[in-house]
Amino acid sequence: MIAGRQEKIRAELEAGTGAAIGMAVDQSGIRTGLRLWFDDLDDRHGPVVEMKPFGMRGYRVTLGFGKFAGEVIRQIQAAGPDDVGLARALVNSIEETVDLDLSGQPRSDWVIDSGAFRITATARGLVADPDEAVTLVSRDIVVPLMAAMAELIGYDVIVEEEAEEAAYEGAILVSTVRRRERNPRNRLLCIRLHGERCQCCGFEPKSFYGEIGGIIEVHHLEALSLLDTPRPYDPATDLVPLCPNCHRAVHTRRPVPFSLEDVRKHMRTSGWKGGSE
Q1: pLDDT tens digits, residue range 18-35?
Q2: Cα distance between residue 214 and residue 207, in whole Å
Q3: Are 48 and 62 in contact (CB under 8 A)?
């Protein structure tokens, strides 16, 4: 079951973490499991996830560190407050029905204090269909755990800026915002918290396009480049999902984007009657 779902699991992990994923089938026990790690670190120098069936209709997911992961752990411990906040929010987005043990620490305030740090997530009472259960566990537990580690380690996706974004003063700061918006972990958490329904017009691409409709985008309600003084970044409240059209409309005004209500007013003026308030 797990072995046959490897490529789907890998695709979801790479989309959610922004990093290449290595994996291997684990047949060391009575029941077949799966080991996953960041490909460039291998399973000795970074975090490793083990995913195994547990009981009649459950799975146990364990995240730990390889024997030679000291350098990566030090890098994680040096992560900035924004990265730590996003990592904690990703882990905290795992449903309360999942028994989550973070080395005895609370969900909202855990720290990786040594190589002995472990996260153990136990999901029980899953759907009877084995393939569907594997998909649910990988999407709802493994992906946010690995995404949290990717954020702390500092995996980044470099996106080339559109030429028009550099046409005014302050473009360097705007570039930073655009890269943050496209951080795959931001997108993952935003969708886990708010779903894939546009918070401006109410359109849900996947309900219209099916599997190819994973095109929802992530928007900062307050552009980071416009802050007079730094403030704590709360990924749970500072991000909203927008469809590509509404996201583009919001950013047609520069340097201060339109608010969501501004865009809704323009839409109502043109005869639009639906949407998300």
Answers
A1: 899 999 998 877 788 899
A2: 10
A3: no
